Every structure is written in C-alpha cells, then in structure tokens.
C-alpha cells in the first residue's frame, strides 16, 4: 500500500462527520459541480484515446479475488474461466477498463479495510499503466441496512427504510457523509446509492426495506439528503432505479417486471425522488430493467429505451450526469436480446456506464463491432466518456495521486465517532407499533429473557446471526439471556423446544423475518403467547409482519438485522432510549388489504 497523505477532501469530510456526530448539523460546503468550462481539458484527453480505450471507459465489470495482481489460485481460475484473464490488472489492460465494482461474498473482493485499500491501489496502478493513463472509477453497492458490502471494520449504518422511519433529514445526510467519507478513504468513489424507488407494493420482492418509504415526497427529501451527504464526502452518488422499481411484484434479476402506473401515477408516485435527486446535484442515475408502457409503449426495458432515458430523463427532467445500467447479467434486460446487443442498445438509448456484463469479451466486442460498422458513432462514444471523465475529475481522480494511504484507512474507516453517530441514528429509527398495558419497556425485575425466532445471517458475515447477536446485546445491558434460533420455517419439534425454553423466563423476545399467510412463524408466536410469559415481537426486516400475527401485546420493527439496528432495538426494549421511529409505509390488514392496520406515520412512544 502506498504511504501517501490524506487528501484535503477526506480530511474535511472526516472533520465534518465528527461535528455532525456531536451536533447533528452538517456544516461543510458541498463540493461544487465540475464546471463545463473544464471540458476543454477533458476533451483533450479524449482526443488522445483510441476507440478501444473509449469503449473500455464505459465498462464496469466484476472480477474475483482480494488482490489486483496475485489473487488466490481458486480466484485466478474463476477469472480465467469467466473473464478470460487471471487478474483484474490483466482485465484492465486487455479491455482498457474505466471502472470496476467490488463485491463481498461470492466475488471475494472484500475482507477488511486494509486489504480493500491495497486492492484499490493495485487497480489504480493497472489503470495508470494503460496507454492513456486514466484512474478507475471504483464502484460499490454500499446502501447499508439489508444491502451492504463492506462489513468488518467499517461503520454499519441504518438502511433506507430505517432512516425513513427516523424522518430526520439531518440523520440521512450524516449517514451518507459517514459512509461516503469511509468509502473515499478506501479509494471508492462511486456508490450505487441511494435507492429512489417508492415502495408502494408490500409484496415487492427486491426493493422493500431498501426504499425510504411509500410517500413520494418524503422519499424525495431523504434521497436528496443522502445525495448531499455522499457527494460532500467526494463520492459519486447514484439514485436508482429509474424510472422507478417500487411497485413491482417481480424481481428484475429473474424476470422482466411491468410497471402498470399511468403517466399521471408515474408523475405523482415514481418521479418525485428522481427530480429531488437531480435538484440536489446527483452525479449518476441507475436504470431499471423493467417495462413502463405509460412512458414507452414499445415496451422496451427502460435500460434500452431512448424514449425513457433520453426523452424523459434527459429532456424532461434535465439530467446531464452519468446514466449507468443496472447489472447487465440480470434477466430483466436479457429477455429480448443477446449479450452482444444489450450494451449496444443501452448506449443507443443514452446510457454512459455499462455495469456487470455477463461476458465482458462478448459485450466489449459487441460495442466495438457497432462502432466499426457505424451503428454507434465515435462522437456518441465521446459524449459518454466526457460525462465519465467529468465525475472522475470532480472527485479528484484526475488531479494528483489516486492512491490511498494506510493511515487514512486506519484513521477514518470505522472511526469511533462514526460508530457512535451510527448508534444514535439507529436509536431514532426503531418503531414501536403495539404496546398493550405498558408491556414495554421491560420492568426492572424482568432480567431473565429468552430470545427466540428467525435468525438471518448478517449481510456481510454469515458467521453472525440475528438471535444470538440480539441476545448478546441484551446481556451487555445486564440481562440474563438464553437464546434459540428457530429459523424462518420452524418445524413442530423446534416450536415445542421454544415453548419449553420460555418456562421460567421473565419475558420472551421473538424475532420474525418476512412472515406470510402460511408461515410457521405465526404458529411459533401463537404458541409463545399461550405460555402466559410476556412476549415482545421484533420484526427484523419487514414492517408488514405484524399483519399476519394477530394480537401481540408488544411489537417493534428494526427494518434490518445488522448489529447497529439490533443493538438499538435492544436499548429501546430495555427502556434505555425512547422509541422514536414512525412507520414510513402503511401496513394493510392481512385479511383485507384494502384496509389499513397501521397508517404511515404510526409509531408509539412510552408516554402514549
């Protein structure tokens, strides 16, 4: 890792986070947009680039391994099999790549902050070794909450729906600033966040708690706040998924959803958050792989629709930043065309960045063939390359060194003040839905607890799961806790074991995760209620779970199951802090979805 000093931007952003943590007020001026007067310098860079280099700037592929030049043999073999090269450094050299995306888990890119900084420096060395040396714009999906990539060592923050429940623009902005500051310290300068989709469909299988809520204007305010926070930290924010993925019952990873909103409904429900993001100066917007007949009667997926991207996004909404596709390996964009044609049609539709092609060789050569045949002009390539260079210039990648320093990582990533700020923000998001006869907070004498129920693994660490981690949080608050993870589909024997474990306990905390009409989690909760031991229900993901559980004496929502949210929920249950969250979505009755069980804005305090 290169030992270089922190950039002035990183120092300023980190200092601002410290101030924001203490006061709740963010006080650093936003990084100004790159003046188009600087385009002359950028166009000179473009004039020196070959067609092949220009095409490479548009691609943002995945790769395997924790090192740019010496990944494990296993990861080298995977790269060779899927990408035709052994390392990401070779990938950059072969295709003149302009950016890459990091993933944890399956791609094995992320272990800890120091390793990630070393990987970043290796990627940048490979980029600067190209014939036209231009640093990479390194990307990540670090939404927080249910969708997070960097776990151990970095600050974990509440996700979008939790922030929506907190209803604090200052908290949303500070969360973006903290996250952005840590990403910038790691050399990651594009984050595919925030989600701008309005989750008006409780059955949405892919957005759900990744959305700030169901009220378009409220979502828009939160989106703008997060955009401001990220971009003040020197990170390219990305509002997604245009033109709106909040009212789908199908996952675009596996199919091609259809948004049936009328144009008036789209203007009222889907458009406001994207308009708010643009007004806040968002640098990039991600497309959705879905059909919106009211916007484009041809029913092309939005990613491939000139009518939607150029006609609506560019011309009507006035967006002139970078348009990036959602991942091109998703089925929603591959239903009609081959993998060689999808990137070509996306560029013709108005896209600038091509994310995660399923076969980089096929995609790259498909675009190259289209340029050589005249289907895509070199002027069209130049438009997209210019937009990409503008954001690289804005975040400082074209001035000075793109490398990151060990001392910057150690000082900034996971800083104590960041973690304390995250904990305080999380405490303001936990939502109390039901509290019959003052079951909560737990009374002083209720020290023996059973924590039981669904126990999903942490998003970035499958060795840590919800139930034992929640029990640990109660133990640290002075309780004597036993725990039993029963899973999302407990069998009768497991339910019997849970009921037996409740005997002699002062209270039971039961967690649920995505309860449905036929879920065995309903039986578990009912059996626990029948024991006569006070039962506290905690939905660790969806606020909609309560509709399927009947009458429980106490019910809360944490909106996610990461450590910061579980600890906040434990502190609320224990009475160490007041519940302050308000539902950002309505919860309909399970037996009659036309009727509302809890309205948006509902949330009890201990004074109610």
UniProtKB/TrEMBL annotation:
InterPro entries: GH, Glyco_hydro_3_AS, Glyco_hydro_3_C, Glyco_hydro_3_C_sf, Glyco_hydro_3_N, Glyco_hydro_3_N_sf, NagZ_Beta-hexosaminidase, TAT_signal. Residues 431-606 form the Glycoside hydrolase family 3 C-terminal domain. Residues 51-391 form the Glycoside hydrolase family 3 N-terminal domain. The keyword Chaperone does not apply. Pfam families: Glyco_hydro_3, Glyco_hydro_3_C. GO terms for molecular function: beta-N-acetylhexosaminidase activity. This is beta-N-acetylhexosaminidase. It comes from Streptomyces ambofaciens (strain ATCC 23877 / 3486 / DSM 40053 / JCM 4204 / NBRC 12836 / NRRL B-2516). The lineage of its organism: Bacteria, Bacillati, Actinomycetota, Actinomycetes, Kitasatosporales.
């Amino acid at each position: 890792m290169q030992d270089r000093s922190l950039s002035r931007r990183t120092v300023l952003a980190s200092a601002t986070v410290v101030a924001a943590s203490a006061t709740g007020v963010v006080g650093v001026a936003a990084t100004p947009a790159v003046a188009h007067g600087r385009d002359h310098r950028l166009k000179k860079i473009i004039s020196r680039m070959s067609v092949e280099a220009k095409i490479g700037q548009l691609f943002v592929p995945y790769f395997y391994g924790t090192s740019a030049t010496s990944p494990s043999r296993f990861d080298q073999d995977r790269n060779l099999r899927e990408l035709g090269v052994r390392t990401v450094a070779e990938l950059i050299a072969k295709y003149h790549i302009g950016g890459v995306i990091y993933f944890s888990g399956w791609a094995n890119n992320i272990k800890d902050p120091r390793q990630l900084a070393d990987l970043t420096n290796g990627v940048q060395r490979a980029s600067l070794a190209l014939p036209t040396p231009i640093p990479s714009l390194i990307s990540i999906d670090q939404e927080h909450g249910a969708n997070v990539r960097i776990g151990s060592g970095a600050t974990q923050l509440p996700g979008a729906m939790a922030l929506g429940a907190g209803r604090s623009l200052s908290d949303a902005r500070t969360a973006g600033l903290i996250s952005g500051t840590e990403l910038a310290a790691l050399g990651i300068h594009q984050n595919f966040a925030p989600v701008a989709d309005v989750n008006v469909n409780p059955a949405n299988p892919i957005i759900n708690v990744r959305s700030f809520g169901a009220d378009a204007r409220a979502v828009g305010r939160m989106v703008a706040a997060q955009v401001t926070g990220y971009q003040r930290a020197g990170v390219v924010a990305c509002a997604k998924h245009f033109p709106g993925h909040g009212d789908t019952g199908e996952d675009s990873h596996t199919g091609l959803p259809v948004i049936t909103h009328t144009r008036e409904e789209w203007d009222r429900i889907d458009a406001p958050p994207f308009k708010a993001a643009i007004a806040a100066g968002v640098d990039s917007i991600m497309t959705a792989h879905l059909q919106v007949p009211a916007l484009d009667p041809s029913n092309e997926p939005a990613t491939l629709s000139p009518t939607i991207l150029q006609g609506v996004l560019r011309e009507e909404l006035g967006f002139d930043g970078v348009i990036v596709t959602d991942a091109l390996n998703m089925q929603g964009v591959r239903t009609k065309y081959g993998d060689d044609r999808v990137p070509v049609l996306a560029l013709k539709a108005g896209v600038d960045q091509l994310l995660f092609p399923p076969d980089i060789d096929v995609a790259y050569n498909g675009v190259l063939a289209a340029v050589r045949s005249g289907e895509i002009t070199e002027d069209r390539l130049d438009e997209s390359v210019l937009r990409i260079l503008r954001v690289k210039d804005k975040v400082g990648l074209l001035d000075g060194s793109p490398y990151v320093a060990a001392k910057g990582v150690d000082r900034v990533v996971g800083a104590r003040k960041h973690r304390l700020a995250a904990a305080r923000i999380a405490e303001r998001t936990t939502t109390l839905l039901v509290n019959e006869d003052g079951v909560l907070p737990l009374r002083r004498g209720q020290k023996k607890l059973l924590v039981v129920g669904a126990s999903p693994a942490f998003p970035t660490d499958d060795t840590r799961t919800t139930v034992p981690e929640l029990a640990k949080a109660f133990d640290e608050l002075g309780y004597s806790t036993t725990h039993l993870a029963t899973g999302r589909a407990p069998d009768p024997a497991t339910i019997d074991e849970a009921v037996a474990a409740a005997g002699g306990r002062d209270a039971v905390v039961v967690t649920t995760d995505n309860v449905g009409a036929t879920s065995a989690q309903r039986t578990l909760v009912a059996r626990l209620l029948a024991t006569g031991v006070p039962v506290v229900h905690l939905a660790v993901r969806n606020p909609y779970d309560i509709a399927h559980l009947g009458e429980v004496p106490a019910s809360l929502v944490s909106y996610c199951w990461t450590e910061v949210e579980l600890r906040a929920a434990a502190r609320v249950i224990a009475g160490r802090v007041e519940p302050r969250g308000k539902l950002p979505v309505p919860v309909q009755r399970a037996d009659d979805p036309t009727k509302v069980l809890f309205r948006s804005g509902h949330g009890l305090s201990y004074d109610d």
